[in-house]
Amino acid sequence: MNTPNKLTLLRIILIPAFVIFLLMPEDIPLSYLWAGLIFGAASLTDYFDGKIARARNLITDFGKLMDPVADKLLVAAAFICFIANGLASPWTLIIILAREFLVTSVRMVSASRGVVIPANNWGKAKTVSQIVAIILVMVLQLTEQLIYAGILPDFIGVGCTGIPEFVVIGHIGVWISAILTLISGAVYIWQSRELFKDIK
Questions:
Q1: Rounded CA gap, 73 and 76, in Å?
Q2: Is the distance from CB of 108 to CB of 88 less than 8 angstroms?
Q3: CATH assignment of 3-196, among 1.20.120.1760, 1.10.1060.10, 3.40.50.2300, 1.10.472.10
Q4: Is 37 in contact with 157 (CB distance < 8 Å)?
Q5: CB-based contacts of 180, cutoff 8 Å, min separation 6
């Protein structure tokens, strides 16, 4: 197995550890810091596996299949954990998963007909927005943990009631990501409309 594929597998292996820290009780200090570090490490494997594969001509069928699967598993794991912790709406995950299943199905149909549908800026915006939303939620929750731990000053009067504003801001970030995901899916389907003209 070549280096890019090993990095892809490492990203998948990191997901359970990422989930464990996200689902730890809120009173466990700095759990979101460790979750963030693992997410950062997983993101780096995504960057380097593609870069190495292209530079050394190590692109394989395994990589083509598992690289996007690993990316989607990491994002889905984060959103599922956020929902479990009350930090995101279930509807956002439904939108994201529906888009991914639909686009994947369209890609399979287009590939079977020898049609290549190019990537577009909406797809890139979708990916960036999901990563930003995940980082935003984790940073907000880590900030709250640091305040509770006395590492940061209580600059907004947390007391013992938590920081509902942080939860609201996180929800907004996740919803922006879900909306961009929905738009990117709609654009992709529109670009693929020629595939469905002969369907009876």
A1: 5
A2: no
A3: 1.20.120.1760
A4: no
A5: 122, 125, 126, 129
Take residue 6 and report the two structure tokens written for it.
């090993």
Q: d(Cα 21, Cα 95) in Å, to the nearest integer?
A: 25
pLDDT digits (tens, 9 = 90+) for 70-125: 889 999 999 999 999 999 999 999 999 999 889 888 877 777 777 666 667 888 89
DSSP string, 161-190: S--HHHHHHHHHHHHHHHHHHHHHHHHHHH
SS3 89: coil
Position 78 scores a pLDDT of 96
99 in Cβ contact with 179 (< 8 Å): no
Which DSSP symbol is given to 151?
S
Domain ranges of the chain: 3-196
CA nearest neighbour of 111 among 100, 103, 99: 103
Polymer length in residues for the chain: 200
Are 175 and 93 within 8 A, CB to CB? no
- pTM assigned to the model: 0.87
> What mean pLDDT, rounded, does the chain reach?
85
